[in-house]
Design goal:
CATH superfamily of the largest domain: PurM-like C-terminal domain
Distance between the termini: 15 Å
Radius of gyration: 20 Å
CATH architecture of the largest domain: Alpha-Beta Complex
Strand order of the largest sheet: 7-9-6-10-8-11-12-13
Number of helices: 10
CATH class of the largest domain: Alpha Beta
Structural class: alpha+beta
CATH topology of the largest domain: Phosphoribosyl-aminoimidazole Synthetase, Chain A, domain 2
Length: about 350
Amino acid sequence: MRGVSESAYARAGVDQSGAGSAVGALVAVLAGIDTGAPSRSVLASGHYAAVLRLDDRRGIALSCDGVGTKVIVAERLGRLDTVGIDCIAMNVNDVICVGAEPIAVLDYIAVEEADPAALEQIAIGLRAGAEAAGVEIPGGELAVLPELIRGHPSPGGFDLLGFCIGLVDLDAVVTGAEIEPGDAVVGIPSSGIHSNGLTLARRALGDDDERLLEPTAIYVRAVRDLLDSEVDVRGLAHITGEGLLNLLRLESEAGYLIDRPLTVPRVFTEIADRGGVEAAEMYEVFNMGCGFCCVVPAEDADEAVSIVARRHPGTAVIGRASTAAGVVELPRAGLRGTREGFVAA
């Protein structure tokens, strides 16, 4: 990634490279946990969701994520009925990436003040998201923390996150390990900015732009349709922070050539123009119109597109797996990316 002095996101208050180092320090310690028994973990750290072995046949998939500074926009606009959808989406879309079926989400809501009307609005979004994903919300936690939470404006502050549980057969876990050069990358449209890069988006567009509250698309039902079909699904990637570089989280020796990208929504070009954000950083921070990717054999591509497009019109083949291991190429944008970020090709 570029240095702080060159990064619009860092100037807006988020240093992604520093955050990456911090996560590495955290994971390094937690990886050494000794339970006194063999680890149940099936996947290495860094995938979209963890998978723990229940027995020789079944596993549980786990994910935890929040809504980020999108809650500030909700507070500013006085609209709290959509961010619950984002909370569900950010979690279930990760769990589906390992081939699991999400079954439940627990919510954690921290508030500056326990306002029944505000909590009812948040719950409306949580319910809508849960119904769209086909999951239950069997419990959660409400914490009243006026010393920690400050609203925009006060006393309407809150934070929102979720924890998702899914079920998966161990012989059906999707990791990306079977991806081969030549496989098709199917892109599913995003609904907009989703819930990543909001600090930079807000800096460019302001906190009062209604487009910032467009809920994150939920891909669970479409991807489950695909997994239940005869299509050989080899990789599933939720395109969040770091954009299409999320493809590199798959356990594959391949790279990815995205030479037919989905249309970039206008909101992203406005962020780039108003915020003076270079293309490389835009593609590192935002989904740029593609919210999810499925990697399938080339011969299954048409069928995969047909299945997913029933629920998400605009789905299309956007590229293919390549022999350039660890590289994402975006020739139309003139970019070449690795885990370190995008640079001019």
